[in-house]
Amino acid sequence: MSLLLLLLFLPMAAVQTTPRNITTGSSLTPLGQTTPLVVSPSGDFAVGFRPLDSDNSLFLLAVWFTKVTNQTVVWAANGNHPVEAGSNLRLRADGRLVLTDSGGAEVWSATPDATDITHAAMLDNGNFVLARAGSAGYAWESFNEPMDTILPSQTLSFGRRLTSRLTESDYSDGRFQLRMEDNGNLVFYQAPPSCPIDAGCTLYDAYWDAGTVGNGQQLVVGSAGDVSVALKNGSSVTITPKKSNYPPREFYHRATLDPDGVLRHYVYARNETGGAWTVAASLPSDICVRRRYFVGSGVCGYNSYCSQIGAMQKTNCDCPPQYSFVDPARKYKGCKPDFAPQSCDADGGGGATAREFRIERMPRIDWPSTDYQHLKPVSEEQCGNACLSDCYCTVAIHRVDDCWMKRLPLLNGRYDVKDINGYALLKVARDPNSNKNNRTISAPKTTIKPPFTRRSGGRTWLLLLLGSGNCLLLAVVFFLTFCVYHKKTWGIGSSKLDINLRPFTYKELHEATQGFKEELGKGAFGTVYKGLIESDSTSTPIAVKRLQELDDAGAETEFENEVRIIAQIHHKNLVRLLGYCNEGPLRLLVYEYMCNGSLFGLLLGSTKPDWDTRVELAFGVSRGLLYLHEDCSTQIIHCDIKPQNVLIDDNFTARISDFGLSKLLRAGQSRTLTDIRGTRGYVAPEWFKHMSITSKVDVYSFGVLLLEIICCRRSVEAEAGESKAVLAYWAYDCLRAGRLEALVEDEAGPLADMRRLERLVMVALWCIQDEPSLRPTMKKVTQMLEGAVEVAVPPDPSSYTSSTVEVYL
Q1: pLDDT top residue among 758 and 12
Q2: Which residues contact 221 (CB under 8 A, 6 or more apart)?
Q3: Core-most of 99, 182, 232, 809, by most CB within 10 Å?
Q4: Residues 101, 107: contact at Cβ < 8 Å?
Q5: Are strands 502-503 and 577-583 parallel, antiparallel or unpaired?
Q6: Looking at per-residue confidence, does 282 or 463 come out higher?
Q7: Is 507 assigned to a binding site?
Q8: In the chain, % of residues over pLDDT 70
């Protein structure tokens, strides 16, 4: 009877025994939390499918410690491509170990250098291997394809590397890499955040190296977890100190390149219930201070700062006061201001002004990159006041009597416990709730730095461009006169507009804006407020432009003309007018609300928009202008094309706004004479030469805007240096010298799209030719941008010679 019972239970015991290897032809499939796995003889390590989430829907093919808290993963085959239930790991007859997803597509494979494979096994040292028949060696081993961790007895030979995870819970490739270079040096690198680490991007400068160029052979982890570089002469250079009080018989060891770029030697007491990993050593020990180069966001991302806390010296990322994380779950993406930064257009009547800000004093905080001005000797109070009065300044760093002024985005922020004399003087909103998340809808004239002299000779139009004022009052007077004179032609005869717009009462708009509470922007002719229209249980956000109150004979006619101008246009790249209010001196326009703010804020924000997005926005502005110039029943010249007047809707479509300075031309009329309009930096030269004004003034402004979109910078930046200060000059120099990569600062997107980059730069340079007849029409511009028409190499924008260049009509 006992023998019978034993025979009955033997098959059950065999089923419950965890397998020690995967034989040829067999496979593993994830089955939830109880998924099959293969363990090492000692039971210290296992390989199998590791659930990534609580509902067991995604899995890693991984190797992990089985006897430690949370069963720490040390290797994964598919960190970038987790698989679903129904996936399969099979050791094929040809010796290939293949991971396929639930649809049968191959996700990962181990291809051995032999065909006599008998099985896959998990070894006691944490190495997952393919074993050969009758051979002591292995045809493939996970130790040769490490992820972020290296174990005792494991080596890192020439050309191999460790790549950090993105976060503790995200096993995809992160931002840091440790490489054993072919020249024998062990080097730590950081990759640009917008470029996957294996995508061929140029890595940032090394932030640590072992100094073993020409002598190093491999990285070695000793039995006690100490990490060293073995040299050709048989000696070694220890890079993390050996800890004799952590004997391998009593402690597990691992060295992991963590998501913050630090290689940490961890130890864990064996046979300890509820234990935890402890840091025995780290390299570099001062990552927050060490990573301080002049490119890249740093360890913690743009506008944040890094500190090391706790006994394990883990990196902590924080946002400055009145800043918040772009993504709280992924703090390495950095921080964004919770208030509208000071506008350099504020002097013209829009944006936040200096008096709306104050200085927040932060000891031992520094952003060591992006200085654009150095003042000395100055006191701390003088340094803070200098930052408050400078519209570009975001923070000033003061030490003793030195003051370094910095602008957004802030790079490589850190808290340095040794810096007892340093203070960050951060510019923040005086009232944090007064301008929170504001976006400029209609911005006034740009304040420009003093002009620069071109090294090949002065350009008189630039001096006029930067030195002349905008005669806005004269423009308004002319516009009113022009509208009244052509009153019959345009069919405007009363205050009742025969157009398909909703008339609002002033009371309705006062309630919709909560008493004009939230200001979005301010222009020369009015202020824009955010509002909300409630209708049939739905809410529609709106932007209400409250015009200056004018109670005179021409005011009503001027208002009606502006309404009629905007009401007659309907295009996906133009902001739509929804309604109006006309009660005595109270005149308001109601527009669609654009939730993503202006192109100005996007281009100069803390995060640069990707290349494809910028190109599509440029195309959108071009199509909108083409509609105004050629597809309207009456041609409209916008006269004030600039980034502040291009808004971004919820589909990230560019929408041209602010037609307050628009110019209508009657049928058959191609040019007119008027006073200067528009914003300095975008105004065509003919405004200053008393020439007839045509739609080519918009073409010129679009060319300047297109260069700003390409480069994500202003058209004039005094602090960029003489050669780069005027973007148009620099762009032409770069095109002529064949170094367009300098324009985009080696950005991966445009560098992978060089033909289109070159085409867009050449189109922009044709648009900004001094001679209006050389500039293409917006129809031709649109065709050139989209590649339907070839683009010739443009001449120097201010060196017009009629006999040597083609005239674009």
Answers
A1: 758
A2: 150, 151, 152, 153, 154, 155, 227, 253, 255
A3: 99
A4: yes
A5: parallel
A6: 282
A7: no
A8: 75
- Entry field: residues in the chain: 809
276-291: per-residue pLDDT in tens? 898 888 888 888 876 5
More confident residue, 588 or 679: 588
Q: How far apart are CA 427 and CA 432, in angstroms?
A: 12
**pLDDT score, position 307:** 86
Task: Report the mean per-residue pLDDT for the chain.
Answer: 78
Find the helix or strand (DSSP H, E) in which 474 lies.
helix 472-485
The DSSP call for residue 742 is: G
Q: Please compute, for residue 468, the number of CA atoms within 13 A of its CA located in the half-sphere on the CB side.
A: 24
CB 90 within 8 A of CB 62: no
Annotated catalytic sites, by residue? 640
- How far is 450 from 519, CA to CA, in rounded Å? 31
**Per-residue buried b or exposed e for 607-645, using 16+ beta carbons within 10 Å of the residue's own CB:** bbbebeebbebbbbbbbbbbbbbeebebbbbbbbbbbbb
The type of residue at 383 is C
- Give the pLDDT of residue 803: 31
Largest Cα separation within the chain, whole Å, is 118
Tokens standing for residue 417: 């416990």
- Which region, left, alpha or beta, applies to residue 733 given φ > 0 means left and ψ of -120 to 50 means alpha? alpha
User: What is residue 565's DSSP assignment?
Assistant: H
CA dist., res. 436 & res. 597, Å (int): 13
Closest CA to 341 of 391, 389, 384: 391
If one counts every other C-beta atom within 10 angstroms of the C-beta of residue 7, the result is 9
Parallel, antiparallel, or unpaired for β 654-656 and 646-648?
antiparallel
Q: Which of 273-282, 585-594, 644-653, 677-686 has the lowest mean pLDDT?
A: 677-686
Cβ atoms 657, 647 nearer than 8 A:
yes
Count Cβ atoms within 10 A of the Cβ of residue 144 and give its class: 0-12 exposed, 13-18 middle, 19 or more buried.
middle
Tokens of 746: 């080696």
Residue 107 has pLDDT above 90, yes or no: yes
* Least trusted range by pLDDT, from 125-134, 173-182, 347-356: 347-356
Phi-psi region for residue 668, left (φ > 0), alpha (ψ -120 to 50) or beta? left
Give me the residue label for tokens 């031309």.
665
**What Cα–Cα distance (Å) separates residue 477 from each residue in 417, 473, 554, 764?**
62, 6, 9, 33
The token duo for 764 is 């922009």
**Share of residues in the chain with pLDDT > 90 (%):** 31
SS3 of 627, please? helix
Burial (0-12, 13-18, 19+ Cβ within 10 Å), 485: exposed
27-28 β-sheet, strand order: 27-28, 88-91, 97-100, 106-110
